[in-house]
Design brief:
The protein is an alpha/beta fold. The protein is built from 13 helices and nine strands.
Length: about 300
C-alpha cells in the first residue's frame, strides 16, 4: 500500500469517526467492524478489546477535594469517556488520586465502558488485602478490572493473593508494573516464568530500552502491555518546541506532537494501551484523537523515529 492510499483527513478521523482503522504490519489484532469507531487491540489473555488510549492519574488527579469538586477534572474525565475512553489507571502511591477518581466517576455520564485499574503497593499479605479493599472504596468499584503489583514490591506475596481474588471475581486481570530501568533484569525473569495478564512499563520514542528487552517477551508470552510516561514527563515536547511535524504525518491522522508520540507507541506490536496523564481538557482531546484513524506500519515507525532523532 502506498502512502497516498493511506491518507485520511482530520475530518474523517475526528468528525465522522466512522469505521475502525486498519493497522498494517502489526500482529496485534484490531477490531475491524464498521460499528467500532475506536482503534482497539486485543487483551491476549481473554480476547477482550481495549481502546489503545487510556488515562493515567499520577500527579494530575492528586488534588484536594476538601474545598469542593474540581469542575475542570469532571470535564476532563467526561471528555475521556465521550471520546471512547475506557482504561483509567491509578495507585495508592498517587496520593488522593484514587479517591478523586471515585468522586469524579459519580458525576460523569457514559462511563459504562470503564476499565478500572490500580495497584497494590505495600509489604505483606494482610496489608496488601487491606490496601486493595481501600482502593475499591476510594474508586467506588465492587471489583477491579486490573490489579497490578506496583514496582515489583513484595510481588511473590501479592501474586498469590491476586490469583485467589481472580478466582473469586474481585479482579479480572493480574498485572505487574515498573517505571524504573533498574528493575528490568528482575522483571524480565518474572515475565518469562509467572502468569501475568498485564505488564506496565515506560516506553516512548526517546526511551526504547523496554522495547528492546521486555516488549518481545510480553508479545511472545501473550501478556498485554500498558505504557506509562509516553512523553518522558514532558521532556519530549521540549525537543519538539517550535518544530514542525513532517508533511507525511497527516497520512496517519497526526496533527500534533502528542499524537505523533502516542501513535508511535501504540503501533508497536506488543503494546496494548498507553496511559498519558493530563488535567486539561484540550490535552485530553488531543491525546484521545490519537486513538482514531490509522496507525503507522513498521516502515512508517522507522520514518517517525528517524525524523524525531534528527530534530
Amino acid at each position: 500500500m502506498n502512502r497516498k492510499n493511506r491518507i485520511i483527513s482530520r475530518r474523517d478521523f475526528l468528525g465522522r469517526l466512522g469505521g475502525l482503522a486498519v493497522l498494517a504490519g502489526v500482529r496485534v489484532p484490531l477490531l475491524q467492524a464498521e460499528d467500532h469507531p475506536l482503534i482497539k487491540k486485543i487483551i491476549p489473555a481473554s480476547g477482550e478489546p481495549l481502546p489503545v488510549i487510556g488515562v493515567g492519574s499520577s500527579r494530575t488527579f492528586d488534588v484536594d477535594l476538601g474545598l469542593g469538586m474540581h469542575e475542570d477534572l469532571v470535564e476532563v474525565l467526561q471528555t475521556f469517556f465521550d471520546m471512547g475512553g475506557a482504561l483509567i489507571d491509578s495507585s495508592p502511591m498517587y496520593g488522593n488520586a484514587e479517591a478523586v477518581i471515585g468522586q469524579l466517576l459519580k458525576r460523569v455520564k457514559n462511563r459504562q465502558a470503564l476499565f478500572a485499574a490500580t495497584k497494590v503497593w505495600t509489604d505483606g499479605k494482610q496489608a496488601g488485602i487491606e490496601q486493595m479493599q481501600r482502593s475499591m472504596q476510594r474508586m467506588g468499584v465492587d471489583a477491579f478490572d486490573l490489579m497490578q503489583i506496583h514496582n515489583l514490591r513484595d510481588w511473590r506475596t501479592h501474586l498469590e493473593t491476586l490469583k485467589q481474588w481472580k478466582i473469586e471475581g474481585k479482579i479480572r486481570y493480574i498485572g505487574i508494573t515498573t517505571s524504573h530501568g533498574r528493575f528490568h533484569d528482575e522483571l524480565e525473569q518474572i515475565l518469562k516464568t509467572q502468569p501475568f495478564d498485564f505488564v506496565q512499563l515506560s516506553y516512548n520514542i526517546d526511551n526504547q530500552e523496554a522495547g528492546r528487552r521486555l516488549l518481545p517477551i510480553a508479545e511472545a508470552r501473550g501478556i498485554a502491555v500498558l505504557v506509562n510516561r509516553p512523553f518522558q514527563r514532558g521532556s519530549l515536547f521540549g525537543r519538539t518546541r517550535g518544530k514542525t511535524l513532517p508533511a507525511w504525518a497527516e497520512e496517519i491522522g497526526v496533527h500534533s506532537w502528542a499524537q505523533y508520540f502516542l501513535k508511535f507507541i501504540v503501533s508497536h506490536p506488543a503494546v496494548t494501551c498507553v496511559i498519558p496523564a493530563t488535567s486539561r481538557v484540550k490535552h485530553m482531546r488531543d491525546n484521545m484523537a490519537a486513538g482514531f484513524g490509522v496507525l503507522p506500519d513498521e516502515k512508517m515507525r522507522q520514518d517517525m523515529l528517524q525524523y524525531y532523532q534528527q530534530l
